[in-house]
Amino acid sequence: MFRSIFRAGLALALVAFAALAPASAQTADPLASWNDGPAKKAIVDFVAAVTTPGGPDFVPPAERIATFDNDGTLWPEQPVYTQLVFALDRIKALAPANPDWKDKQPFKAVLEGDMAALMASGERGGVELLMASHAGMTAAEFSRIVEDWIAKARHPRFDRPYTDLAYKPMVELMAYLRANGFKTYIVSGGGVEFMRPWTERVYGVPTEQVIGSIIKTRFQMRDGRPELFRLPQVEFIDDGPGKPVGIAARIGARPIAAFGNSDGDIEMLQWATMSGRRGLGMLIHHTDAGREYAYDNQAQFGGIAKALEAAAVNRWTVVSMKDDWKTIFAFDK
Amino acid sequence: MFRSIFRAGLALALVAFAALAPASAQTADPLASWNDGPAKKAIVDFVAAVTTPGGPDFVPPAERIATFDNDGTLWPEQPVYTQLVFALDRIKALAPANPDWKDKQPFKAVLEGDMAALMASGERGGVELLMASHAGMTAAEFSRIVEDWIAKARHPRFDRPYTDLAYKPMVELMAYLRANGFKTYIVSGGGVEFMRPWTERVYGVPTEQVIGSIIKTRFQMRDGRPELFRLPQVEFIDDGPGKPVGIAARIGARPIAAFGNSDGDIEMLQWATMSGRRGLGMLIHHTDAGREYAYDNQAQFGGIAKALEAAAVNRWTVVSMKDDWKTIFAFDK
């Protein structure tokens, strides 16, 4: 009984929704999470300019390429990079099978939660942790490990899955650009195989449009099946000047819009905006300690100060999360 | 007067064409350059199987990925690789600015047309030629050099631009796969920047779907403009076991169909067909000395014998150009 009433109500609701949908779709703001202001205006004006046929800044759809940094641009990078959290969790999970780690840095520091000793292990320590957690299995196995982890792990402050923390205004922006004929790419210093299991679901970006750092893999046959085995060796670092290099190698065409948040994005924004034709460069500035984080510079994230300077020189739009974003996360309000 | 009659005739012709088009489109064979036989049947059966919703071999469109070797698979590799012809032409063009090349191998051999001395310079000589011809300029400059060269150079036997030599059956096959929801990628041992200037026009494959060997590039500012400078250092060789590695790094998903012609394609075909789900592996066998070339093995091209053996073991379809292809080039007949 309850069920059939429920069904009738649902059917009515669907009819009502279908009747309303076309009108609301026409009037809905595709950038509803952006406050009116210079940042939103810069986006809308740029898209209008490059999509107006016959206009001086018109760009054919095939050349409408937009590239997005990930950490700090599409989701938080605080209190530490998500991929580093993953690496530390992996080390803990692998510790029983590696008893020597109890007395060996940087593993000892991870297992004892000794951040000072961890930091003291420096870049070499970081690479050792990265390799121990990211190599030594097949690409398919690693994908499954990432999928399992990202389904369960929760951000320490927001107590939600990391994939819930995609910035709503950026997800809207990517969809808005795609609706206007753009291809949207992620171009991150993070590992490409760490991002691909969830980028389509979270950002609408398919695997082949995810560019990132890569470790070496070896093709091999095992039990009559081909597999790609992940080796403890870095193949390519997709950060800083590596970003335009990665874009050229993988896309083979130059973006006209680029979005970042730190010094490691400067070259990508230069590449997108200093070509002689109209480009859009945008820096996400973390100014909202209440709803997310506020930081102007922090060594762990490679710095922001130079990017802000470059933004002033190159007329890139600086987005203040506090002022320009009505909503930050989909779960807000 | 002539012009207006011409226009009226053109208008009539367009009307007639528009009236005919739907009918002819329905009846036209998308693989018209393929003779009926096991190869054509293997293609049609495979496509039907993976595109039939609810069928046991159905593959969703997003996972329909097909990868194609280029040299010897999509266009001729005889009498030598086209990119090698390009390299030798570049050395000759650059010789006046490099007077020391007159007495220095392997350049001396190139300038004197001394093939024996050239071969004697071995792999090291080959790399030196490649680097002298392919590095030392920006990526944009190199693209223009390739475009200029490919517009003028002619194949020694067919006396036509190399881009006229795309195999018509393979161009049809790529279009047929795309019409059935596939994404078609080129995965070549050749340099990615050598192919991208013309792959869209010739094969319908956009730059971001061209995977190939890569040399190192450096991001730099010159006169206030960012540029990518090509360095004389190999970054990645997209051949043999490198093909699945390149596919994984760039596409991030596994192909279900792969097309090659030599030992350097074995791993790519293994990767595409030995996944547990239905796959199509196909080897183009050069059996037509009259219309193209006939060769069963040739050291210059890395061998074919092992690929033919692997085809027998793995049930890959071997295409005999003589028997399976009605037409080889668009300019035939």
UniProtKB/TrEMBL annotation, chains A, B:
Superkingdom per UniProt: Bacteria
Signal peptide, first to last residue: 1-27
Keywords, comma-separated and alphabetical: Hydrolase, Magnesium, Metal-binding, Signal
Matches recorded under Pfam families: HAD
Magnesium in keyword set: yes
Matching InterPro entries: HAD-like_SerB, HAD-like_sf, HAD_sf
Hydrolase among keywords: yes
PANTHER family found in the cross-reference section: PHOSPHATASE RV3661-RELATED, PHOSPHOSERINE PHOSPHATASE
Protein's name in the database: Haloacid dehalogenase-like hydrolase
Origin organism lineage: Bacteria, Pseudomonadati, Pseudomonadota, Alphaproteobacteria, Hyphomicrobiales
